[in-house]
């Protein structure tokens, strides 16, 4: 039965839609396109190499998938190369101190990923290898539904339905799914499952990702060169950019706080390790106040020591869920000052810091 589409308020049939077309035809068209247009990515074994018998390294696939969560390909490429050069195998990463992994991760955001990255490496090294099924992969630290499916499909060619942001967009348009996000996620996965091939599962997942990244783009999709546009309900309707349907964005709240840059006579600055739980967990940072929605705390109650503090400016940083403004204060360490056990003196240029702390330190040296 042909699916129905709506054009100018009237229902019309799209006999070539993904729902009515044989799923194998949709998968074949996309895989044929991928064989000629696959992106060349440092963590990928492309279709030509696969035909020659090369297979993906599960460690490389896992590392890239963790790094790519909420981070662009352009940002990840150089950082991925640094990680792989420093820790070529999962055993190498497992044997590294957590602080080294956290430091190398600085600037990539979502720092719980770095802590789980190390925990997972330790767990895999202990068991001897990565498991090759979704269910087993999900027992490892930091591996949820998406990452388990991606590693199972791409590294082991298991039939696992992988759904990232790009694939969500492709499937939502292909079937004109009008349920608003994130409520549409179960339907999107079910629809993706209907067209997912039994063979070349990893190639199909990467083909869908490439299609979403380069052709089925969020804005101005390139439908005329899309290999599956004939089966796309949104294209038939002419309202591709309406999918996936997203609710109106709520404005991000604003939070305020202060940080304190204490220096010694050796050109070092006082940093402390943030608590493992919470934002920027486990990362180095300047001592400071809590980040609150109220007025800034001018009492300096949380300054590392009583000193002649001077305000040198403020930094603004945008996190996923809020805007942050930090007042930055500087002072020289008074005689007799002793740091606490979770604090350390480090030269600012040597400190591996998250982006917001890099901003704060930079204005102390302007």
Automatic annotation (TrEMBL):
Residues 67-214 form the HhH-GPD domain. Its EC number is 3.2.2.31. It comes from the Bacteria. The keyword DNA repair applies. PROSITE patterns: ENDONUCLEASE_III_2. GO terms for molecular function: hydrolase activity, acting on glycosyl bonds. InterPro entries: DNA_glycosylase, Endonuclease-III-like_CS2, Endonuclease3_FeS-loop_motif, HhH-GPD_domain, HhH_base_excis_C, HhH_motif, MIG/MutY, MutY_C. It catalyses: Hydrolyzes free adenine bases from 7,8-dihydro-8-oxoguanine:adenine mismatched double-stranded DNA, leaving an apurinic site. It holds the Pfam family HHH. Keywords: 4Fe-4S, DNA damage, DNA repair, Glycosidase, Hydrolase, Iron, Iron-sulfur, Metal-binding. Belongs to the Nth/MutY family. PANTHER family: ADENINE DNA GLYCOSYLASE. Adenine glycosylase active on G-A mispairs. MutY also corrects error-prone DNA synthesis past GO lesions which are due to the oxidatively damaged form of guanine: 7,8-dihydro-8-oxoguanine (8-oxo-dGTP). This is Adenine DNA glycosylase. It comes from Hyphococcus lacteus.
């Amino acid at each position: 039965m042909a699916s129905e589409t709506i054009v100018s308020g009237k229902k019309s049939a799209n006999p070539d839609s993904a729902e009515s077309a044989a799923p194998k035809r949709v998968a074949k068209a996309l895989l044929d396109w991928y064989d000629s247009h696959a992106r060349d990515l440092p963590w990928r074994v492309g279709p030509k190499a696969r035909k020659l018998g090369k297979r993906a390294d599960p460690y490389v696939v896992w590392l890239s998938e963790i790094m790519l969560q909420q981070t662009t390909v352009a940002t990840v490429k150089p950082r991925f190369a640094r990680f792989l050069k420093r820790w070529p195998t999962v055993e190498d990463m497992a044997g590294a101190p957590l602080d080294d992994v956290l430091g190398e991760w600085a600037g990539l955001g979502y720092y719980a990923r770095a802590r789980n990255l190390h925990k997972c490496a330790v767990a895999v090294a202990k068991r001897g290898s990565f498991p090759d099924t979704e269910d087993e992969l999900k027992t490892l630290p930091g591996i949820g539904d998406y990452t388990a499916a991606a590693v199972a499909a791409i590294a082991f060619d298991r039939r696992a339905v992988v759904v990232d942001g790009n694939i969500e967009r492709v499937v939502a348009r292909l079937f004109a799914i009008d349920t608003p996000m994130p409520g549409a996620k179960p339907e999107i996965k079910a629809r993706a499952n209907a067209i997912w091939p039994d063979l070349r599962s990893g190639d199909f997942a990467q083909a869908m990702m490439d299609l979403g990244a380069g052709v089925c783009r969020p804005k101005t999709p390139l439908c005329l060169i899309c290999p599956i546009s004939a089966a796309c309900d949104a294209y038939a309707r002419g309202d591709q950019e309406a999918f996936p349907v997203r609710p109106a964005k709520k404005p991000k709240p604003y939070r305020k706080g202060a940080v304190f840059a204490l220096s010694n006579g050796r050109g070092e600055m006082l940093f402390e390790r943030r608590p493992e739980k919470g934002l920027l967990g486990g990362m180095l940072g300047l001592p400071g106040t809590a980040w609150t929605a109220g007025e800034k705390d001018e009492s300096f109650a949380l300054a590392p020591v009583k000193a002649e503090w001077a305000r040198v400016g403020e930094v603004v940083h945008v996190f996923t869920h809020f805007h942050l403004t930090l007042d930055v204060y500087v002072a020289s360490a008074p005689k007799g000052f002793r740091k606490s056990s979770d604090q350390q003196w480090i030269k600012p240029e040597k400190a591996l810091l998250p982006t917001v702390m890099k901003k704060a330190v930079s204005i102390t040296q302007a």
